[in-house]
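Justification of computing resources. Each target in the renewal requires a structure prediction run like the one illustrated here; the chain below, 330 residues long, is used simply to show the kind of job we budget for.
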Amino acid sequence: MGTIDVHTHFVPSAWPDLSTQVGPGLWPTLRVDSERDAMIMLGETEFRRIGDDCWDASARLADMDADGVEMQVVSPTPLFFSYDKSGDEAVKVARIFNDLALEICAPAPERLIPFAQVPLQDPDAACAEADRALASGHAGVEIGNHVGDRDLDDEGMVMFLQHCADNDIPVFVHPWDMPGSPRLDRWMARWLTGMPAETHLSIIAMILGGVFDRVPPTLRLAFAHGGGSFAFWLGRFENAWLQRPDLIGVSERPPSAYLERFSVDSVVFDPVALRALVETLGTSQVMVGSDYPYPLGERPVGSVVDRADFLDEAQKRAIRRDNALRFLGR
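Resulting structure tokens:
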């Protein structure tokens, strides 16, 4: 029984002209440079170079076989969320890319597990698209960690998460749209510092915003990139909750009481960091993720677990496979 990788992404090899199909505006396009190489474009600006492992199931499966990965959760690339557009436009975009995701995963449905995107800025439409996607063959949804200044404790977000809990839909939360500045726009600092901070902030919002107090524990929720910096700073968070209840003690229980309510992936690269995750959240709350096929991801997939000599074989199996099966409801 191989590893289950809960954090991978896809980009189709082609999609309709969104300015024609959806509406005028700055939309991502794909400049195809060869059969195996392309560039995602935003207008005239190069956004990210990608390879055929983003869209070609055979290339993806070959890499999975090389790394001992039995199944991948295949999620949207956050660029395509379209949360800055109208709800109607985002619905159209979600349908286009969700249907293309099914095509990409179709050659190996037992191994490639598609997750859908939803128009999160419109909660009613997000619930409807999640239902449509699940009925079409998706196994869950990936959402961004915020919509503009609305975090996961926004009423609309809570409504969507409640819908997912009620309908047994797993939710994978991915950081995106990190703020830029002259200090953050060099050295990929938005990805090196902003991405962990975004994820940390959203877990805080779930706790202090009372989401875990309102949404039932049946919600299957996971955060990408090891939960950002949350595990390392839980002690600071707990101390602040206890020392400043006038400002921070707004949740029903202290932060440490909610650790069994969410999972994180293992994309932390260093066994020392993985140990902090396991000791803070528990072995049962960590799942292998890789961020495949992007260059800041982990290859071979799960190598940080292999190098973790503090884990016994049962714990490694839980992180590599069993926890993901529970998250996926299998």
